[in-house]
Design brief:
- The protein is α+β, with helices and mostly antiparallel strands and 193 residues long.
- The protein has one domain: Aminopeptidase (3-Layer(aba) Sandwich).
- Helices cover 39% and strands 25% of the residues.
- Strands 1, 2, 3, 4, 5, 6, 7, 8 and 9 form a nine-stranded mixed β-sheet that branches.
- The longest helix has 22 residues.
């Protein structure tokens, strides 16, 4: 039986991924209940105590990592991202919400992919999403992921999903270009972000 381990602290140049805490529940709930975002997520209870309970339960699950995406200098929370359904070879990247902060969205995703593929030694990181979720489709293409040939069905809703993924070899080959894209986002954001 696997033992639940706390999410590590992952630090980039301007972004920090820290473990989600119960105190983050109102931020997360606000994001999940936004109709533009919630349209692509499983149903979310509007009850704050339910979100806090979910976070407590998530922290007890083995091989389930949930991070707040924060600005490195101020600690301001800009979004969330998770890694779960971890097996010996692969894991799912999801619970990904980072609106209005493209630099942190990109750097946070790269930090998590690097940790999963290089530190944990997984071979594949993937995400699943509905075909209508254009934001995730664009993000996976920008990060040069490739589409898995077989569709996936959501176990909770029965909805048909797409699976996009990257692997160690592809990530290593694409990482220099991805870091150049990240640097372009930093230049566009300016020095104060």
């Amino acid at each position: 039986m696997a033992i639940a381990a706390p999410s590590p602290l992952l630090t980039g140049q301007r972004t920090v991924l820290r473990p989600v805490e119960e105190g983050d529940a109102s931020f997360i709930l606000k994001q999940r209940l936004d109709p533009r975002i919630g349209a692509h997520l499983h149903a979310t209870s509007p009850d704050l105590s339910s979100q806090q309970l979910w976070i407590r339960q998530q922290r007890e699950r083995p091989d389930d990592y949930y991070f707040a995406i924060c600005l490195r200098g101020t600690g301001e929370m800009r979004g969330v991202i998770g890694l779960y359904n971890v097996t010996a070879q692969e894991a799912e990247l999801g619970r990904y919400i980072c609106i209005g902060a493209p630099e942190q969205a990109m750097e946070g995703s790269l930090l998590l992919q690097h940790w999963a593929l290089e530190t944990l030694g997984l071979n594949v990181v993937y995400c699943t999403f509905t075909p209508a979720n254009r934001t995730t489709r664009v993000l996976t293409r920008v990060q040069q992921w490739y589409r898995h040939p077989e569709p996936v069905t959501d176990a909770l809703t029965g909805t048909l999903l797409e699976r996009w993924q990257t692997d160690q070899q592809t990530f290593r080959a694409n990482r220099p270009r991805l870091l150049q894209r990240l640097e372009a986002l930093r230049e566009a954001a300016g020095p104060t972000r």
